[in-house]
Amino acid sequence: MPHSHSSPSAMLKSGLRRSMLLFLITISIAVLLVSGWTMWSSWNRMVEHGQMDARNLSQSISRQAEDTFLQVDLTLQDLRDRVEINGMGSEQKDYLQTLLQSRKATLPQLHGLFIYDYKGSWIVTSDGKIPAQANNADREYFKFHQRNNDNRVHIGKVIRSRSTGDLIIPVSMRLNNPDGSFHGVVLGTIRIDFFRQVYGYYNLGDRDTLSLLLSDGTILYSRPFDDSVINRNMSQAPLFSHLLKAASSGTADYRSTLDGVERILGYTTLKRYPLVVVAGFDKQELLKSWFSDLLIYAVLSAILLMVICLLGYMVMRHIRLNLQNQIELTQVRDQLTAMNHTLQSLALLDGLTGLANRRQFDLFLQQQWKRAQSLKQPISLLMIDVDSFKLFNDNFGHQLGDDCLRRIAATLSNLAASSEALVARYGGEEFAIVLTGQESRSANTLAQKALEAVQALAISHPTSLSGAGVVTLSIGITTNSQPAAGDSYDGLITSADAALYQAKNQGRNRAVVL
Ligand SMILES: Nc1nc2c(ncn2[C@@H]2O[C@H](COP(=O)(O)OP(=O)(O)OP(=O)(O)O)[C@@H](O)[C@H]2O)c(=O)[nH]1
């Protein structure tokens, strides 16, 4: 129905739909925000844990590195003290060799122990072999001790052993003559393979790193990279360019210059030695494990969102159907009411004249009779009959007969309009007027007016037995000035009929009161 778009129900419907939609959008945004916030904070927690783990790991391997170098340091100190007391002449060589051999055997990190004289010549080695013409005066550590009268241990960059070809870290100490002049060097070499092995024990991801560096940024060993990164200088990396200048240990988060992988780093500087250890966790791997942890949560959130939307859709559908039903019911009700009105009027009105029909007349008379009884008021009835109407029909035909009845009906209706009266078509060419609350005089007056008004219509009727030449009425009047309780109104009708009969008999076109 076109008017339903602007009806209150339709407005209510669109209002409800809008509220429901707003509710759904709000809930969806809330679920997304809560999920987003939860995921974001869980990622931050994951990164924090990663940083803590990296730092703890770097501290743990720094202690291990410290122990590794301290053991070699103490061994070298002991050897230095013995050489400085007993010298390294040919009579000492056997003793020193045995000593070096047994010391090496106790320390798994050691590749070898060596003693060189002030010219760099090999004096004693832990494995007893001395290559012909061997001279280590060209080594960086030898030159260092030659130049620096310092009794502390020196840790050099990674070199390849001249005795075995292995990659080694040289740890060395200067030997002095009693006068303090340079006497030679005692050297302990640590196998890179030792760190490879130790760092291999840690259960780490493929791209997680563990690195040992000199504090000038030189890589000594770094897993999982191959040996080509050894001795590479990292002094330009943020760790050495500023982080280590600010604190001896900490965490950082940056992209490696070695392989471009972003890592969470934990770093620690060793207390006794110029060394730095770094543990790095692959951030992408962390992201993956965070994501797999959160996957179930994300799936559940998505399901929750879908369920909310589905429920919302169902509720909206329900509301729509409900309102649709209501609208349809209202329409049906309106139609029924309209039909009832039509039926009612059809049931109570006369189709030809539009006056009250016989049924309404009966109902009205019954009702007014009771009212008059209880209020002790007068009630009058006028029975009206068109004179010689059969002849009128015979002369002019039924259609004009109908017109005539309609005009008489309209005239009677106009006359009664001012008084509390009901004008009805009693049947055929007979009319009736019920008049309540008025004396019989009023009924007579009304009857006289009706006689005059219909005659004044001047509807030609030359054959009428009234002799008026026009259509006239005969009226029977009766009035019951105070109907007694228990009386029936049938008496009123009988009496009015009798009066009408008399009016006809007395020559028509008149009113008779009984
Ligand atoms: N045109 C028309 N005629 C009607 C209608 N209802 C009744 N009549 C006619 O009214 C006439 C009534 O005739 P009668 O009852 O013999 O009485 P009358 O001819 O009026 O004679 P009196 O009553 O004695 O004056 C009949 O011929 C009916 O056919 C109607 O609705 N239309």
What does this structure look like?
By secondary structure, this protein is an alpha+beta fold. It folds into 2 domains: 1-343, Beta-Lactamase, CATH 3.30.450.20; 358-513, Reverse transcriptase/Diguanylate cyclase domain (Alpha-Beta Plaits, 2-Layer Sandwich), CATH 3.30.70. 52% of the residues lie in helices and 20% in strands. The chain has 11 helices and 16 strands. The chain has helices at residues 8-86, 90-106, 140-147, 192-200, 238-246, 283-348, 358-375, 389-396, 398-416, 440-457, 490-505; strands at residues 110-117, 122-125, 154-155, 159-160, 167-176, 182-191, 209-214, 219-223, 249-255, 262-269, 275-282, 379-386, 421-427, 430-436, 473-480, 510-513. The strands form 3 sheets. Strands 1, 2, 3, 4, 5 and 6 form a 6-stranded antiparallel β-sheet that branches. Strands 8-7-11-10-9 form a 5-stranded antiparallel β-sheet, with helices on both faces. Strands 13-14-12-15-16 form a 5-stranded mixed β-sheet, sandwiched between helices. A hairpin with a 6-residue loop joins strand 4 and strand 5 (167-176). Helix 1 (8-86) packs antiparallel against helix 2 and helix 9 (398-416) runs antiparallel to helix 10 (440-457). It is rod-shaped and about 185 Å long. The protein starts with 7 loop residues before the first helix and ends with a strand. The structure holds guanosine-5'-triphosphate. Guanosine-5'-triphosphate (GTP) is lined by residues 352, 385-391, 393, 398, 401-402, 405, 428-429, 504.
